[in-house]
């Protein structure tokens, strides 16, 4: 079958067509987007300007905050501006670009969370070898591997979609371009492509989630014999990470692990991993982490010391 593509633009139906709801959502998501930028930027500056940058855990947290910013910025600005527009249009090329960048930065976040779980596993289960295993060279290599894996995932996802013919309806029942809504519009049999998408996105998310849960099971099994104080500190650190993992992975798995179908509730679940999770990640990591709170105080609350006519 010849690949025919008569569609040059798509119409995003968004979250709602009700004017009042759209205005309310505009204010809500504008606030959320500002909070995402403020929270994640605060974390990155606080880690970079403190001694925490030398610790692998915070080295990865810095990259997680950066990936959160990039990930949500592929979707949220367009969503906010569309809430004020009468007709929400996105060109074919911009749609494919949004699809690629969203899955690229989302993939980085998935792999960074996995690397952070591995870091906690080594720190708690193999403390004597932690420094040698999680050297700065190893940390840089892990981040590079996360980016490479995310690029491969996103490239395959985009390749499967670009080759689809679009010759009919161009209304996407979503607030951003994603694979499943696009499969619904393709004027060809997408059963095989749908299976490949599930294998690429759904299975990647499921395997990663299982690995994460297994690592935390091993951590809990190891710390059961620890003294109460050490056990409490380990649980505090791991619980923060686990909350972030659940907040991000559960909605992702709900959408991508099932067969290639769409549902109106998908848009609600998508809000969790595109907006809500990036907004709450800084709060979870700062409010439940003593070292992070101390770093914030040192960087942002220290008073300048006067020496003669100068201050430092």
TrEMBL record:
Belongs to the G-protein coupled receptor 1 family. Keywords: Cell membrane, G-protein coupled receptor, Membrane, Olfaction, Receptor, Sensory transduction, Transducer, Transmembrane, Transmembrane helix. Residues 39-285 form the G-protein coupled receptors family 1 profile domain. This is Olfactory receptor. PROSITE patterns: G_PROTEIN_RECEP_F1_1, G_PROTEIN_RECEP_F1_2. SUPFAM superfamilies: Family A G protein-coupled receptor-like. The chain crosses the membrane at residues 26-47, 100-118, 139-156, 203-223, 235-257, 269-287. Gene3D superfamilies: Rhodopsin 7-helix transmembrane proteins. The keyword Transmembrane helix applies. The keyword rRNA processing does not apply. GO terms for molecular function: G protein-coupled receptor activity; olfactory receptor activity. One of its GO terms (cellular component) is plasma membrane. It is found in: Cell membrane; Membrane. Coiled coil: none annotated. It is a multi-pass membrane protein. It comes from the Eukaryota. Its main location: membrane. Signal peptide: none annotated.
């Amino acid at each position: 079958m010849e690949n025919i593509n008569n569609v040059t633009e798509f119409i995003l139906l968004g979250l709602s067509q009700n004017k009042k709801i759209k205005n309310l959502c505009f204010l809500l998501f504008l606030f959320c987007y500002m909070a995402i930028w403020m929270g994640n930027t605060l974390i990155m500056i606080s880690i970079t300007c403190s001694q925490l940058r030398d610790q692998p855990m915070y080295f990865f947290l810095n990259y997680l905050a950066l990936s959160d910013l990039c990930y949500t910025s592929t979707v949220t600005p367009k969503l906010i501006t569309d809430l004020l527009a009468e007709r929400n249009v996105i060109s074919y090329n911009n749609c494919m670009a949004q699809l690629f960048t969203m899955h690229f930065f989302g993939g980085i976040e998935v792999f960074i969370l996995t690397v952070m779980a591995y870091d906690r596993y080594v720190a708690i289960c193999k403390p004597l070898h932690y420094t040698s295993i999680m050297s700065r060279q190893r940390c840089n290599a892990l981040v590079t591997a996360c980016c490479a894996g995310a690029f491969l995932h996103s490239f395959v996802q985009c390749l499967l979609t670009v080759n689809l013919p679009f010759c009919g309806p161009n209304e996407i029942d979503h607030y951003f371009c994603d694979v499943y809504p696009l499969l619904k519009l393709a004027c060809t049999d997408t059963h095989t492509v749908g299976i490949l998408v599930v294998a690429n996105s759904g299975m990647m998310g499921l395997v990663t989630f299982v690995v994460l849960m297994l690592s935390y099971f091993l951590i809990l099994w190891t710390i059961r014999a620890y003294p109460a104080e050490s056990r409490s500190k380990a649980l505090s650190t791991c619980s923060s990470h686990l909350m972030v993992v659940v907040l991000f992975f559960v909605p992702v798995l709900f959408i991508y692990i099932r067969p290639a179908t769409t549902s109106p509730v998908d848009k609600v679940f998508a809000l969790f991993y595109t907006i809500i999770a990036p907004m709450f990640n800084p709060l979870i990591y700062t409010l439940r982490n003593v070292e992070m709170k101390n770093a914030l105080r040192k960087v942002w609350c220290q008073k300048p010391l006067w020496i003669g006519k100068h201050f430092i």
